[in-house]
Amino acid sequence: MPDQSHASDGPVGAGFPDVQVPVGGAAIDPLGPSLWSTTGPATLRGVTVTYDLKGVSGVRITPVAQGGGDCATPSPARVVCTDPRGLSFEGETVEAYLPVEVSASRSARPGDTGEVTITVTADGLTPITGVSEVRVLGRRDDLPVTGPAAGWSGALLLAAGVMCLLGTRRRRRIVPAT
Q: Which terms are listed as keywords in the entry (predicted)?
């Protein structure tokens, strides 16, 4: 699966990352475009990021509370976020800008894929559109590094390591100097 698609037709470039989501859970990272200035320091005003999900059942997108913008959800497959503050670039990349959370219900099928079309608009900017692939994985608790099972297996591995360390450590006897 490719990392992300890119677009840079003008003063702003954008990357659109792909995302994997477990059945009955949410993707580890929120989904949002990465943006950068291709011409140096710049400020965008009137920024809107629109997300349109299609092609996969049992998956939905919702605004992220800490996303920093004002978001509306006209449907479970569409989110529109605006940023009243504006966006300033000082040579760095702004990652996951105005993000959404991607989640899959328990009825989603592992292996299914869909796509989220992401469109970034701003005052005086030609709209930038890209596509992020959404891939549904097995249930989170079936995965070896996530979910409740990982908590118990991690705790057991830690306890075994401590026991091993204590069992092989030499005990020193301190003898007072005479």
A: Membrane, Transmembrane, Transmembrane helix
Q: Which two tokens mark 95?
A: 């990652």
The residue with greater pLDDT, 59 or 141, is 59
Q: What is the pLDDT of residues 132-175, one digit of tens each?
A: 999 999 865 444 444 444 454 455 445 555 444 444 443 333 44
In this structure, the answer to whether residues 69 and 145 fall within a common structural domain is no
Q: Each residue of 13-33: pLDDT tens digit?
A: 999 999 999 999 999 999 999
Instruction: List the alpha helices (DSSP H) in the chain.
Output: 148-168
Long-range contacts of 147-152 (CB under 8 A, 24+ apart): 147/22, 147/25
State how many domains the chain has: 2
Same domain, 27 and 50: yes
CB 115 within 8 A of CB 55: yes
Q: Identify the DSSP state of 55.
A: S
Q: What is the pLDDT, as a whole number, of residue 140? A: 53
Pair (23, 74) in one structural domain: yes
Q: What pTM was estimated for this model as a whole?
A: 0.73
85 Cβ neighbours under 8 A, 6+ residues apart: 68
- If asked whether residues 87 and 105 sit together in one domain, one would say yes
Q: Is-contact 30 103, C-beta < 8 A?
A: no
Query: Are the CB atoms for 132 and 16 separated by under 8 Å?
Result: yes
What residues make up the domain containing 165?
A: 139-170
